[in-house]
TrEMBL record, chains A, B:
Span of domain Aminotransferase class V: 23-341
Swiss-Prot/TrEMBL cofactor(s): pyridoxal 5'-phosphate
Top-level taxon in the UniProt lineage: Eukaryota
Entry EC no(s): 2.6.1.44
Organism, as annotated: Hydnum rufescens UP504
Sorted UniProt keywords: Aminotransferase, Pyridoxal phosphate, Transferase
Protein name: alanine--glyoxylate transaminase
């Protein structure tokens, strides 16, 4: 899997670093999606995604698109027009998932946590007792707040109170950086994308569906309300590639699947186990959050137990804002992301530390980020005369 | 734009060769989609797509997905449930577009041409006089048959008989290899993808909509029936990037857009004009078709004037089939595609000769293809004792 290819010099980007080997695979010569060389590459991606999410029978769907397309897959395959959906809101992405569900005719109820908090078990239980929901959705890590929801607790309370309700985990910012035990926790759908913890450029919608979810699809009374996102059309394709033959519904993003294959291989069969990967993300997160705490920076999440391990969202120090901090960090070749949640947009920033950055300490990314942050806060305070 | 990067050794694939520079851009270091370096790259792709399709005011939509997603965009944005659609069928892709339209509630009428033919002007005129259609769709090049429809004629008759009907050109296999004059011919939507004449790996849905089409969208009575494919959600994003700022609806496939930028630049500002590009495709096509004729091979298209210039579909010689031909060509490092149209699937094969293969004679791709085909037919006939 090694190669002489080295990507161009660049700053450390906020979201994720991509390995040279993965980028080299993205530059693979043009291959037909039905060629005998490509079929096992696609097939193995399907199998390795199962390993990554700790499931035996979950059905992967790998479709050209962004993470958002996963919402359309849930809304158009699993919810029939007029049915009810319960959306747990821990940031920006809850609102958007609700919009998507409504676009396909669902009746949506949102439970909104205060900024920096997650919806509580008591709130979920109460809502599920009040009404019959076809799906319950939550954002595992909402990148707009850095809040980590307790996926295991949510699945447990949902299954206990309303056994038929499909449990939908939006894991775009969580898969491969946060622990997700698809079978053990009894999740029905995980939605993700390649460009975060999965360590691959963006452009592939990555979804995993339980057999129960597929059964619900099979028993719909009305037709699926999408064409491109229809699992009925994609299921035979995924099965064909997994079992060694090609089938066509729409052209897969061939190069990106070569790249994804390299990254999945390092996640599932690289030097470290999945458990170790999660542990290293927790350790990396602690280091960044401790350093921020030592600098007097306040986290957006109100509770450390509800904080993402692949990213950190921090309020700017009193008296400083984005213009004081981001350009200074950029000069040190460190890219961070500004605020995203509309209510606090100008007041905070986000640091990504998932994937290679967390797992491969020899790169020194974390040292660079922490040192850069320390210097920047000191310099920005001095420049503004802020204590 | 030059680079030291050389892609790995490979056979000549059927669909398209991708330039080293384009693949190198696909291996660009990870960049945030809102980074100041990326914004103009996306913005320029939007502008260069307009140039490629010869339009001033057409609105591009560049969305992570395959070409198929373009059908969903037409069906969910421009056709309201219960409205009528006229699909001109010149091969496999007509049936699929019809399926897609029906998935979103359209009432579809298909006019089916015999295999190898296109729908005639008289048939179109008669259909448009009989009923009121919201959209008329046609496949410019149906890759399952190699039939090239006369886009200019179709647009003319449609506008003359039914001025309000939206004219939808499916150009996945045609854009940048066949002449398309969006403004002059008065087309409303062109649907395409990156992986054919546009010379880039697959994974980006490429769509161009007229201001009239956007106006029809604006005046819908019912909501758009998709979320991910909704132009109302994408329009502000495309405008933001074009005018130099970032906006977010769903993550763009950043690396692929870097790659697409390099390819579009060579199409619109490379050594040869668009007119010359079309001319070179016609010349390449003539060479391949003449060579096939000299070998006694029969084309699937019934008329040379209705034959694609970026590909050639040929029946196997009497007494020979795929197993006799494809492996022999493969040994000569030439990849061709088997049949796709279900009625004649095992009876014919397809050769791609678009993009670099047609435009850059110094590569010698055409010589290699033609010589390989000549040798293969001779060898296969000898092996089977066929005259």
């Amino acid at each position: 899997m090694s190669t002489q290819f080295k990507q161009a010099e660049h700053k450390i980007p906020g979201p994720i670093e991509v390995a040279d080997e993965v980028l080299y695979a993205n530059a693979h010569p043009s291959m037909s999606h039905v060629s005998p060389e490509f079929i096992p590459v696609f097939g193995e991606c399907i199998k390795m995604l199962r390993e990554t999410l700790l499931t035996k029978a979950g059905q992967p769907f790998l479709i050209a698109g962004s993470g958002t397309l996963g919402w359309d897959q849930v809304a158009s395959n699993l919810v029939e027009p007029g049915e009810e959906a319960l959306v747990l809101h821990s940031g920006y992405f809850g609102d958007s998932f609700a919009d998507c569900l409504e676009a396909y005719g669902a009746k949506v109820t949102q439970i909104k946590a205060p900024i920096g908090a997650a919806v509580t078990e008591a709130q979920i239980e109460k809502a599920l007792k009040r009404s019959k929901y076809k799906v319950l959705t939550f954002t595992h890590v909402d990148t707009s707040t850095g809040v980590l929801s307790n996926a295991k607790m949510i699945a447990q309370v949902s299954r206990r109170v309303s056994p038929d309700t499909l449990i939908i985990l939006d894991g775009v910012c969580a898969v491969a950086s946060e622990e997700i035990r698809f079978d053990d926790w009894d999740i029905d759908v995980v939605i993700s994308a390649t460009q975060k913890g999965l360590g691959t450029p963006p452009g592939l919608s990555v979804v995993l569906a339980s057999q129960y979810a597929l059964n619900v699809l099979e028993n719909r009374k009305t037709p699926v309300t999408s064409y491109y996102a229809s699992w009925k059309r994609w299921l035979p394709i995924m099965k064909a590639y997994e079992f060694g033959s090609a089938a066509y519904f729409a052209t897969p993003p061939v190069n990106l699947i070569y790249a994804f294959h390299v990254s999945l291989k390092s996640i599932t069969h690289g030097g470290i186990s999945l458990e170790e990967r999660f542990h290293l993300h927790r350790e990396a997160s602690k280091r960044v959050k401790q350093a921020a705490f030592d600098l007097g920076l306040k986290q957006v999440p109100l509770d450390l137990d509800y904080s993402a391990n692949g990213m950190t969202a921090l309020y700017y120090p009193e008296g400083l804002d984005a213009d004081d901090i981001i350009p200074l960090l950029m000069k040190k070749d460190i890219v961070i992301a500004g605020g995203l949640h509309k209510d606090i947009k100008g007041k905070y920033f986000r640091i990504g530390h998932m994937g290679l950055t967390a797992v491969d300490g020899s790169r020194g990314d974390l040292d660079k980020i922490i040192q850069g942050l320390q210097e920047t806060i000191r310099e920005a305070k001095a420049a503004k005369g802020v204590q």
